[in-house]
Amino acid sequence: MDSAPNQSTQPKLFPSIIERLNALEYSQRTEESYIQWIKRFITFHHKRHPRDMGSEEIEAYLNHLAIDKKVSASTQSQAKSALLFLYKEVLQRELPAMENLTKVKADKRLPMVLTKHEVQAILSRLNGTMWLMASLLYGSGLRVTECLRLRIADIDFDRLEILVRDTNGHKNRITLLPSSLVESLKAHFQEVEILHAEDLAKGFGEARVPPGLAKKYPEAGKEFTWQYVFPSTKLSVHQQTGVVYRHHADEKTVQRAVKKVAKQAEIKKEVSPNTLRHSFATHLLQGGQDVKTVQELLGHADVSTTMIYTQVVNTGGRGVASPLDVI
């Protein structure tokens, strides 16, 4: 990893970045990611202060990522978002267009999808919390990060709904809660509540909450309803504030668990936790659900993103039967 910028840069610039990220209620994950990209940008330009640079330097760095580092389109996009955030939100500067930017082309491969039998083969080999997480990925169409960031208050057992919060503070959405998971989730909540009570007894028991909520209700982070549905097994200290939090579980544990059981089930596909989300969308469409509803459940801003699953639904090339099969 690139080294951090010198200390003369960090004390003034980085607290301002963190303050602005918190004010706009960006997630801790996004905060950490943006900080790292900004540090790498500064280091790439020999530790010059960003206020002494601009579009030309941003363009040079993003081209370096594309040409020299050969990063993915999503990685380059994330780096670009972090740097544009720095200039627009922190340095209060409007930048001219980057006309010579080399954009990494997005991978247009179809999403990997499991059959219902393969989904069952994976879920049947998991147990406990990992089974519950994987079941929500498939049963509710959640992204891995969305599943891990769920709060107790986000689960509505009566309406069989899950509130999925947009961690960038833009638009939340509602997705379905499978009725078959209600009793298992309620039992899981009891375990989380016991852990939370133990944390409180030790002087901890706080989960990180949006800055606006924390300002209005300073004790909100210690309320059970704001605890993560899938809490981490370890307490962690926030680097900037020194506050001890109980964060959510690590997504790597979910990734490893799903990959492991997929291999055990001898599934000859590249399987990840998000494959379960792709399968959720595809199986709904196969069952006759309309694209607009699936788009809303998945939280896609544009229906064209959802339409890619219609290509997976069709069997054979473009859904056309081979003449060999009809003679």
UniProtKB/TrEMBL annotation:
Q: Note whether Cell cycle occurs among the keywords.
A: no
A Pfam family of the record is Phage_integrase
Do you know which Gene3D superfamilies this protein is assigned to?
Answer: 1.10.150.130, Intergrase catalytic core (1.10.443.10)
Keywords assigned by UniProt, alphabetized: DNA integration, DNA recombination, DNA-binding
Ranges where the Core-binding (CB) domain occurs: 11-91
Please report the stretch or stretches of sequence annotated as the Tyr recombinase domain.
109-322
Known NCBIfam families for this protein? integrase_gron
Q: Which family does it belong to?
A: Belongs to the 'phage' integrase family.
Protein name, entry field: Integron integrase
